[in-house]
């Protein structure tokens, strides 16, 4: 593997870890981080390392810590919100340090494209005293991964490799080393008080940890990942994807600027930055998410009594929120050039602006045609209508997964959604604070194992009157169908003990536990009603298979003579397979024959047909 | 030299594969190449767009508005949606077929002719053909993405060689689907050839 490959940033990171001699990998899927573990899993046998999808990010990190304590070269992968789940062990780990190198790959999602927050892991590095590396493209992602293992080993500290969506999911030509399986033996665990975090040990370790930050700041000041280009008097400090936005924005006016690209944002490479600003008159900071570099710079100026203008987020030159691009870089830089009374960067005339485009089909995200969740949601929706007639309100707490799309019209069934595993606990809180309400929590199978179980226990222990609807489609569908404890298969494809969701619910003390096949709308409705009516915690496991994993041989078709054009099937279900071009709806090729439209048609005009 | 392409369509049409095939052809022709795709929610019938750039420098992953040299469209309304990325003398090659969105917006009326006329009015160099039909004739409607790409190469809308694209199909597409995709590319090349000879209308 000695030449150019066309790789996604996430794939490059996986190969970087292999090049660094990886022995142990854990993770929990989450966009945009998922492909790192997926690439590792594909290569685990070939390069002789262990890889697993763990039940959640905290468990993934703790498992990797165990491996690192034994001397194994380890990586753990997650997205930024997953880091919150893992933050408990992480904050203590940083005091203890590691033995085998331990790299935490965390992906941030400016935009956000598919996340609950616009968090910045660089700030988490500062918070937890963990060095952060911040690559800008796939080649750098590859090189920095190797460097992350190197400094983790050298300084016995966990290291953050932090990317953003446009680094994780960009594809580039990447030159790889000749990859070989790690031939080093894992040293093994040796008993020592070093691995037991007692207050006394924490007090001893804290000064060492603080001292390490100074050492690392010095080391990073000499790192090739922090470099200067250009000789202009206006300095631009930037990092990650923004580095490329800046370069393109100033490509025709290079003489005006010098650019310092920071690849190691924490600990801040003070010496390097001071050297850079020596010859500079004013400074522009271009960075997505937090004003991290800007804060560090201002702090540095205060510390050394430096007085130079800094233009960034704090003086509203650049936005705090949303994803950046070349246009945002240009607009911000032009604001500064206006202040400095220097001629603006030219912005080319456009062919057309966005608001001149004629009205086009809106394509909101929607549950797939034939998705089991649609049947379950519709069943609950019908039940809630019946309850409404008795003046009883039904409140639906959602969770994180495909089924969050139950919030989309026309189902509009999700009333709350916060973070992984929160649905059941929120429903518990709502149940105690609302009279005349019935409270239903939806949770997917993977989320159930991730962080749903403690909430089930809490509901039972504290006698909450909630209905738990487990939407079990036998996979982690949202992130690309990773296996989980309910699938009976490990990441590496081996058969394993299947953890039984109903068994867990029962052993947690829920007395009303039912299982129903999600393709049977009427039974779904009947059991939903019974579960809601049950006094005390109840649970229904709705079982189906994710439609993108099975090829259906069934289809539905509409009998045009029978159809009255009432449009119930079109307007209430939001199924992508049903469309309306004239007065009579039409069922299209992507129908999987789930039969929900048959069940809701008041005149029996829809029939199932075998394909071909 | 640097060349920017927006490839757009609807989830499930193969935007990501098209982008990959084009990128690998560019890489094998000696260029740096980078792409950025919208992933995640988009697989569920949403709009999908891939930004692809190749040339002598490493670029940012996103193409700024008003700077794309070419839009390759797998669905015609998605081309219109991304028109603000195209530069003033940019070109378009697109499938003429429109995909209507799912149920919720069914009361809204969309007319593909109107959208095509809007695009052609704004951009003179537009090739708009029913590539879905060409792919069907080639053996599988799913090879429509390769069919559009084949036409873009053959029409010299890209500074890369058509023959090199055929080589990429041979190296990248699994054997089972290879011939159908080669057929799809060749059949649409033929269509472009006839069009350029004036046997067919644009």
Automatic annotation (TrEMBL), chain A:
Q: Read off the PROSITE patterns from this record.
A: 4FE4S_FER_1, 4FE4S_FER_2
Q: Specify the enzyme's EC class, one word.
A: oxidoreductase
Briefly state the protein's biological role: Involved in the biosynthesis of the coenzyme M (2-mercaptoethanesulfonic acid). Catalyzes the decarboxylation of sulfopyruvate to sulfoacetaldehyde.
Query: What Pfam families does this protein map onto?
Result: Fer4 (PF00037), POR_N (PF01855), TPP_enzyme_C (PF02775)
Show where the 4Fe-4S ferredoxin-type domain sits: 554-576, 583-611
Cofactor(s) of this protein: [4Fe-4S] cluster
What CDD domains does the record point to? Answer: TPP_IOR_alpha, TPP_PYR_PFOR_IOR-alpha_like
Which pathway does the protein contribute to? Cofactor biosynthesis; coenzyme M biosynthesis; sulfoacetaldehyde from phosphoenolpyruvate and sulfite: step 4/4
Q: What is this protein called?
A: Indolepyruvate oxidoreductase subunit IorA
Supply the EC number(s). Answer: 1.2.7.8
Sorted alphabetically, the Gene Ontology BP terms of this entry are: coenzyme M biosynthetic process
Residues that bind [4Fe-4S] cluster 1: 563, 566, 569, 601
Top-rank taxon: Archaea
The record's cofactor note says: Binds 2 [4Fe-4S] clusters. In this family the first cluster has a non-standard and varying [4Fe-4S] binding motif CX(2)CX(2)CX(4-5)CP.
TM segment ranges: none
The reaction(s) annotated as catalysed by this protein in its Swiss-Prot or TrEMBL entry are: 3-sulfopyruvate + H(+) = sulfoacetaldehyde + CO2; indole-3-pyruvate + 2 oxidized [2Fe-2S]-[ferredoxin] + CoA = (indol-3-yl)acetyl-CoA + 2 reduced [2Fe-2S]-[ferredoxin] + CO2 + H(+)
Instruction: State one molecular function term (GO).
Output: thiamine pyrophosphate binding
- Organism equals Methanococcus maripaludis (Methanococcus deltae)
Q: Does the keyword Oxidoreductase apply?
A: yes
Q: What is the lineage of its organism?
A: Archaea, Methanobacteriati, Methanobacteriota, Methanomada group, Methanococci
Automatic annotation (TrEMBL), chain B:
Q: Which residues form the Pyruvate/ketoisovalerate oxidoreductase catalytic domain?
A: 11-186
Enzyme Commission designation: 1.2.7.8
**What InterPro entries has UniProt attached to this entry?**
IorB_Oxidoreductase, Pyrv/ketoisovalerate_OxRed_cat, Pyrv_flavodox_OxRed_cen
Q: Spell out the SUPFAM superfamilies in the cross-references.
A: Pyruvate-ferredoxin oxidoreductase, PFOR, domain III
One Pfam short name:
POR
Sorted keywords for this record are: Oxidoreductase, Pyruvate
A GO term, aspect molecular function: indolepyruvate ferredoxin oxidoreductase activity
Top-level lineage group: Archaea
What protein am I looking at?
Answer: Indolepyruvate ferredoxin oxidoreductase beta subunit
Its source organism is: Methanococcus maripaludis
């Amino acid at each position: 593997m000695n030449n150019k490959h066309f790789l996604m940033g996430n794939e490059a990171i996986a190969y970087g870890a292999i090049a660094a001699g990886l022995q142990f990998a854990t993770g929990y899927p989450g966009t945009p981080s998922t492909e790192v573990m997926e690439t590792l899993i594909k290569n685990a046998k070939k390069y002789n390392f262990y890889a697993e999808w763990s039940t959640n990010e905290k468990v993934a990190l703790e498992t990797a810590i165990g491996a690192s304590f034994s001397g194994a070269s380890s990586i753990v992968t997650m997205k930024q919100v997953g880091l919150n789940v893992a933050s408990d062990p992480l904050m203590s780990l940083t005091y203890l340090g590691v033995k085998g190198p331990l790299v935490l790959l965390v992906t941030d999602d400016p935009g956000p494209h598919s996340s609950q927050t616009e968090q910045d892991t660089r700030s988490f590095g500062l918070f937890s005293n963990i060095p952060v590396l911040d690559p800008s493209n796939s080649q750098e992602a590859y090189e920095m991964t190797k460097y992350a293992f190197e400094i983790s080993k050298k300084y016995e500290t966990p290291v953050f490799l932090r990317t953003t969506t446009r680094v994780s999911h960009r594809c580039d030509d990447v030159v790889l080393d000749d990859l070989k399986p790690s031939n080093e033996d894992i040293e093994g665990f040796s008993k020592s008080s070093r691995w037991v975090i007692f207050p006394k040990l924490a007090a001893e370790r804290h000064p060492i940890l603080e001292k390490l930050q100074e050492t690392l700041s010095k080391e990073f000041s000499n790192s090739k990942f922090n470099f200067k280009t250009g000789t202009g008097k206006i300095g631009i400090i930037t990092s990650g994807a923004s580095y490329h936005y800046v370069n393109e924005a100033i490509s025709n006016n290079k003489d005006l600027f010098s650019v310092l690209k920071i690849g190691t944002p924490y600990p801040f490479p003070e010496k390097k930055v001071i050297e850079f600003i020596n010859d500079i008159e004013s400074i522009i900071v271009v960075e997505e998410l937090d004003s991290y570099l800007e804060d560090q710079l201002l702090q540095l100026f205060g510390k050394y009594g430096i007085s130079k203008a800094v233009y960034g987020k704090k003086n509203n030159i650049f936005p705090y929120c949303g994803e950046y691009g070349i246009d945002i870089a240009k607009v911000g830089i032009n604001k500064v050039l206006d202040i400095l009374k220097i001629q603006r960067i030219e912005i080319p005339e456009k062919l057309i602006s966005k608001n001149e485009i004629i009205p086009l089909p809106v394509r909101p995200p929607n549950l797939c045609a034939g998705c089991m969740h649609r049947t379950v949601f519709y069943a609950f929706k019908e039940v809630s209508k019946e309850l409404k007639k008795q003046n009883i309100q039904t409140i639906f707490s959602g969770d994180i997964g495909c089924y969050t799309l139950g919030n989309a019209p026309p189902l509009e069934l999700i009333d709350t959604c916060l973070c992984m595993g929160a649905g059941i606990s929120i429903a518990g809180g709502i149940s105690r604070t609302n009279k005349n309400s019935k409270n239903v929590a939806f949770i997917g199978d993977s989320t159930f194992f991730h962080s749903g179980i403690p909430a089930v226990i809490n509901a039972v222990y504290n006698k909450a009157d909630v209905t738990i609807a487990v939407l079990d489609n036998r996979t982690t569908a949202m992130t690309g169908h990773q296996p989980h404890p309910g699938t009976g298969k490990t990441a590496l494809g081996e058969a394993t003990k299947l953890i039984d969701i109903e068994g867990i619910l029962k052993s947690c003390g829920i007395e009303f536990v039912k299982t129903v096949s999600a393709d049977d709308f009427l039974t779904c409705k009947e059991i939903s009603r019974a579960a809601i009516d049950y006094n005390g915690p109840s649970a229904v496991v709705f079982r189906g298979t994710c439609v993108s994993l099975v090829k259906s041989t069934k289809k539905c078709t509409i009998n045009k003579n029978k159809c009255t054009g009432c449009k119930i099937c079109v307007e209430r279900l939001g199924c992508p397979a049903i469309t309306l071009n004239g007065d009579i709806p039409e069922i299209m090729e992507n129908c999987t024959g789930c039969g929900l439209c048959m069940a809701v048609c008041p005149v029996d005009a829809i029939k199932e047909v075998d394909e071909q | 030299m640097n060349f920017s392409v927006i490839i757009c369509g609807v989830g499930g049409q193969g935007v990501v594969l098209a982008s990959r095939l084009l990128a690998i052809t560019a890489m094998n022709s000696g260029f740096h190449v980078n792409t950025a795709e919208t992933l995640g929610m988009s697989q569920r019938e949403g709009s999908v767009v891939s930004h692809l750039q190749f040339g002598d420098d490493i670029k940012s992953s996103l193409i700024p508005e008003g700077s794309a040299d070419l839009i390759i469209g797998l669905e015609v309304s998605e081309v219109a949606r991304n028109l603000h990325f195209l530069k003033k003398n940019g070109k378009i090659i697109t499938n003429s077929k429109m995909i209507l969105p799912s149920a919720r917006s069914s009361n809204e009326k969309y007319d593909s002719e109107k959208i095509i006329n809007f695009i052609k009015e704004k951009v003179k160099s537009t090739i708009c053909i029913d590539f879905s039909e060409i792919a069907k004739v080639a053996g599988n409607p799913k090879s429509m993405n390769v069919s559009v790409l084949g036409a873009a190469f053959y029409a010299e809308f890209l500074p890369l060689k058509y023959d090199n694209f055929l080589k990429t199909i041979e190296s990248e597409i699994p054997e089972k689907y290879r011939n159908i995709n080669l057929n799809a590319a060749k059949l649409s090349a033929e269509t472009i050839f006839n069009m350029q000879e004036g046997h067919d209308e644009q």
